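We emphasize that the prediction below concerns an isolated chain of 61 residues; any contacts that depend on oligomerization or on bound cofactors are therefore not represented. The input was used exactly as deposited, without trimming of termini.
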Amino acid sequence: MLDYISVEQASEKWGISKRRIQKLCEENRIDGAVRFGRAWAIPKGVPKPADGRLKKNRKKD
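Result of the prediction step, given as a token string:
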């Protein structure tokens, strides 16, 4: 398990909530995330997934 981090560690690393990371894992948006019982194991080197809620080419008013 040395190559994995917990949801809590990913939350601190990426600056987003633990619940948001759990949802990203459930939606298969974090590559290599594995579920062990009720906990998620996230690979250490995986980058933070892009936030699909943001629009990249939004015109500024």
